Structure formats: C-alpha cells, structure tokens
Amino acid sequence: MRVYDIIRKKRDQQKLSKAEIDFFVEKYSIGEIPDYQVAALLMAIYINKMDKEETVYLTEAMMNSGEVIDLSDIDGIKVDKHSTGGVGDKTTIALAPLVAACGAPVAKMSGRGLGHTGGTLDKLEAIPGFSIEMDSKKFIDSVNEHKIAVCGQTASIAVADKKMYALRDVTATVDNISLIAASIMCKKLASGANAILLDVKTGDGAFMKTLDDSFELAKAMVDIGCGMDRETIGMITDMDEPLGFAVGNSLEVIEAIETLKGNGPKDFVLLCETLGSYMLVLAKVAKDFDEGLNMIREAITSGKALEKLRVFIENQGGDKNVVDDYTLLPQASKIIPIKSNKSGYISKIEAEEVGISAMILGAGRETKDDILDLSAGIVLEKKVGDYVNEGDILAYMHLNKEEKFEQAKERFINAYSIAEEKIEPKKLIYGVVTKDEVKKF
Questions:
Q1: Which of 110, 122, 351, 366 could join 87 via S-S bond, C-beta 3.0 to 4.6 A?
Q2: Which NCBIfam families match (predicted)?
C-alpha cells in the first residue's frame, strides 16, 4: 500500500477503506510518512469530506495509535462528559461531584486551557495542594471508593491526533466536521468510558459559531461514539455570552462551590442540572431524565454534592477547607470595577472578547508555554437583558499585572453592546442529539 494512492483516491472524491485509513494513521504516527504527504491528504479530506463510516474508521485508527485506558476494574457504567470549550465553563468542577454524589462513577481525564477558553486542570490546580497526577491504580481505587477522580490525559493517548492536529493548524484544515469530530472522540474513547455526554457549545465564545455547524458536529460525534459501541448523547448549549459570572481559574472554582451550596447563577445551575440528569441516565442510575433531575437537585439541597467535593479535593491532595474559606485560593492584589459608559439594556456580551480580556490579565495562555496567574480574571455584575445606567459597574477585574489593565479594560468594554430596547437573553440549551434523533428546542 502507498500513501500516494490514498491521497489520489481521496483527491478524486472516492471513499477510503478501513485498511487505507489504518495504514496512513499508523505509518504517520511512527514517522514513516512525511508531513507533506499527510498535509496533502488532509486537504483532500477537507475539500471532499468523509462519510460517516470513514469518520468512524479514522477515529478508531487515531484512538489505537496510542494507549487505550482500561477502566474495567471500576464498578458500574463510567460516564465521561466533554465540553467543546468556552468562557466561564467551570462545569466539571461542580458537575463531577454532583453526579458522583448520586452514585454514578466519574472517571474523568481533562485538559488544560489555551487561548480564551479555560482548562479544567488549571482551575483545579488553583486549589492549594490539588494534584492531577496519579497512577492508574490510584485513579481506579479513587473511583471505586469515592465515585470520582479527575486527572490529566497521558502523553501516550491518541499519538496520531497530536501530530495531525499540529499539521492541521498550519495547513488551514482545522474546520472540517469529520476531522474535528475524530480528533475529539479518539481521545474520549481512548480514555476508557462506557458512555459519553457531549456538551457542544455554540455562539460567539465557542469553537462552532453557528447552530447548524454545532448540530452537525454533535451528530458526527454521536455517530462515532455509537458506531464504536459507546452510548453517546450530544447537547448543544449557548456560548454567546460567558457562562455564569466568573471568568478565571480561582474565581470559577468559587462559583462552582457556590453552585453546590445552592447559590449558583441561573444559567450555570440549569446547565449542571441538565447535563447531570443525562449522565445519570447514561450510567443507568436514573431510569429517565426527570428522575435524574430530581436526584441532582436533591444532591444539592441535602449537601451531599458539597460533601463529595470535599472528599474529592482531599483525596487528590488538596485543601478541602477551600470549600468554606475562599481566602485559601490565590488572591489578586487589585480588584478594579469596570463601569458602563452609557445607559440602556445590555443586548450582547461577546464571550470571546471577555475571554481574551481575562487572558490578557493572566487567566489564560496565548501559547502553551505561558504561565497562568491563577488569581486573575473577571467577575461580571451584569448580563444580557439587564438594564444599566451610565456609571454602573459592569464587572470587577482581578489582576496583579497593572500594565495589562488598560488593554484588557478596552477589550472588555467593547465586548458589551447596550441598546434602548430590552433584549431577551438567548436560550441556554438548543437541542439534544441521540443515535435515533436530532431534537431541537
């Protein structure tokens, strides 16, 4: 078999076989096919697309290019949740203990943030002493004993995907549904879960900017998961404005804790309740969505979810006292109010610009080697639909680098649109995708 023939075949709009896809992924991952040939193949795929079967073959080949985690020693149905990323998305920190408190095992491998989207691992590491490093025995024992563990993905997972993504990034072949879906799902599938819940963000602060693209991506990923015998559900949720009020690592930890205390922002609470209910159904802990929803709400009101968070933090080396004393988290030396320069109703908040403002303050990375300021970030006071007078406080910026303040402030102010007429906020959840149907709300 020659990669030249595979490139020509896809260039000529023909379907690639499983053997051909396995060949190019395996040989590329071990360095036997050069970048320039894979770049040509990626462009042919980008232009001529892959069908559902080809996409499943590509995902499986990339999954098998590295370590595949075996979680069979963990009791019960392991459910993983993946978000395509956004601004203020601290969901795992609240959701994982919430679902675990209801009896579903949460064995999660998470990533770090890059650009304007935050990473779960960075947020958890704002908790003093918290470690995301653990060997497989400790990981499995933690889930069996406490129903919860979160760690970093090992470098040996989906080796081909890392190489291929770097190449896609510099050859203008990122924005292809099959390539995006395969890249996300090969890592999820290699992480060992029995079932997968996908939170596909849509809007200004999301990777997928339009509803149609978001539904298409969700459907492609659900087809992959189900095609590889993992029960998979996709949800399309809004990221046209930041999720909740807090943007920044330690600030988001506080908001997640407050949510488990029953004091969370309405949009974030709704998201956690909805995702959590579907996770309990996938784990066969709840018979249907409504039963799952009742279990999730009871775990908050009874305090079980908050107690599970304490156990989770302590088990991974962190100081569980942060749950009751937020001063133990990294604190910014300056907290500066940002005021509105006009009166009216907030009609839009560009989530991506808010995320970039927080990144400028030090809460995010422009390059993977940047060092985060875990205390930096932004806490919103007003969101879409709220009325503000000129001079009212829109948000508070938490920072240590004063030289970055003006640049961050300008971007943040420009992210807000204020109109004379009241705008109703967009819905948070746009639909659910299963193997049987695409349901739009």
A1: 351
A2: PRK05820.1, PRK06078.1, Y_phosphoryl
- CATH class, range 3-48: mainly alpha
- The domain made up of 330-419 has a fold known as Aldehyde Oxidoreductase; domain 3 (3.90.1170)
Q: Let me know if 161 is a catalytic residue.
A: yes
Taking residues 87-99, what's their average pLDDT?
95
The strand pairing partners of 171, in sequence order, are none
Examine the residue annotation and report whether 398 is marked as an active-site residue of this protein.
no
Give the phi and the psi of residue 94 in degrees, each rounded to 5.
-90, -40
The percentage of the chain sitting over the pLDDT mark of 70, rounded to a whole number, equals 98
**What pLDDT score was predicted for residue 206?**
81
Q: What is the pLDDT of residue 114?
A: 61
In the predicted model, is pLDDT for residue 113 greater than 80? no
Q: Which of 10, 147, 163, 187 is catalytic?
A: 187
Instruction: From the candidates 10, 81, 82, 188, give the one annotated as an active-site residue.
Output: 82
Helices (H) and strands (E) in the chain, counts: 16, 14
Identify the active-site residue in 108, 123, 168, 404: 168
Catalytic residue among 22, 80, 89, 161: 161
Reduce the DSSP state of residue 363 to 3 states and report it: coil
Beta pairing partners, 195:
79, 231
The pLDDT score that the predictor gives to residue 116 is 62
Q: In the annotation, is 116 catalytic?
A: no
Residues 207/115, Cβ–Cβ less than 8 Å: no
- Alpha carbon distance 246, 249 (integer Å): 9
Tell me whether residue 365 is one of the annotated catalytic residues: no
Q: Find the catalytic residue in 183, 250, 340, 375.
A: 183
**Residue 82 designated active-site:** yes
Judging by beta carbons within 10 Å of its beta carbon (0-12, 13-18, 19+), is residue 441 exposed, middle or buried? exposed
Residue 177 exposure: Cα atoms within 13 Å on the Cβ side: 22
Query: pLDDT grade, residue 13 (50/70/90)?
Result: very high
Highest mean pLDDT among 151-155, 297-301, 436-440: 297-301
Q: Does 79-324+430-440 carry CATH code 3.40.1030.10?
A: yes
